[in-house]
Design a protein that fits this description.
5-stranded parallel β-sheet, elongated, 2 domains, 11 strands, alpha/beta, Rossmann fold
């Protein structure tokens, strides 16, 4: 019996990982008990861990790359082994599994730089999420390596609504020729805002997202994005947990994402 802790939110990444972990657990012969948190707080996480302990789980997978979640894991002094998906943590009975978010963000930014863009705005996720910080880091490092000073990012909350607000802000920045958003949902909002302002994508502004949601290739224009292999993340998480439960230390490697180039990115107007 293993426990899986996730969130009740609708973000595509965490939902996809939760599903893939459950499928990988079944394939490996585990019984899985899941807890979906309706809020991200220490009290909620403590309650989830306590509940799973009472049903006798032998290991847990936490799908919540959020600072509050990581603090809970750090505070655990005993109990079953943990696997944290997309977190930043490494200690005795804990393993970290996930995608190299920094590399994915670098690939997205370098794609825009290679097309000739220099004024590239980043719409970040909430910065108490490790994934958001890692994608911000990848964007900044690629910009610095290209000798381009990055502007201040626009803060989003993963939702299309926040992407729409960010897109309206971009419309007030005539020098900006490209936008890298930290997920595809926010990219959808950016595309809507640019359309309403009469800005053409990619002729006036290129847009690139992250996650490769199923709808990405059917947007107008189809969205360039960074694809994460969520099925592989789920399998790797269960493999790592099985090793911990057998007293072994899994390798601390991250999966490489891939860039999917579609019609929402192109060179800037000359």
């Amino acid at each position: 019996m293993i426990g899986i802790i996730g969130t009740a939110g609708a973000e595509f990444g965490p939902v996809s990982i939760h599903r893939s972990v459950e499928e990988a657990a079944r394939d490996a012969g585990f019984l899985a008990s899941s807890v979906n948190l309706t809020e991200m707080s220490r009290e909620a996480l403590d309650g989830a861990v306590e509940h799973l302990m009472t049903v006798g789980v032998e290991g847990m997978v936490m799908i919540a790359a959020h600072d509050a979640a990581l603090e809970i894991v750090r505070a655990q002094r005993s109990g079953p082994p943990f696997v944290v998906v997309e977190g930043q943590l490494d200690r005795g009975n804990t393993a970290v599994v996930g995608v190299d978010q920094v590399a994915g963000a670098r690939a997205a930014t370098e794609h825009l730089l290679h097309l000739g863009h220099r004024e590239i705005v980043h719409v970040s996720g909430p910065l108490d999420w490790t994934e958001a910080r890692s994608r911000l880091q990848g964007w900044r490092s690629a910009m610095h390596d290209a000798g381009v000073r990055p502007a201040e990012p626009i803060l989003g909350d993963w939702s299309s609504r926040s992407g729409f607000a960010a897109g309206r802000a971009v419309c007030e920045m005539p020098a900006v020729t490209a936008v890298f958003t930290a997920n595809d949902q926010m990219a959808i909002g950016v595309l809507r805002a640019l359309h309403e302002a009469g800005r053409y994508v990619p002729e006036d502004v290129s847009v690139i997202g992250f996650d490769d949601i199923p709808e990405a290739e059917f947007l107008i224009p189809p969205l360039t994005t960074v694809r994460q292999d969520f099925a592989a993340v789920g399998m790797r998480a269960i493999e790592a947990l099985g090793m911990l439960m057998n007293g072994q230390k899994p390798a601390a490697d991250l999966l490489e994402p891939s860039l999917v180039v579609r019609a929402s990115t192109g060179p800037p107007r000359s």
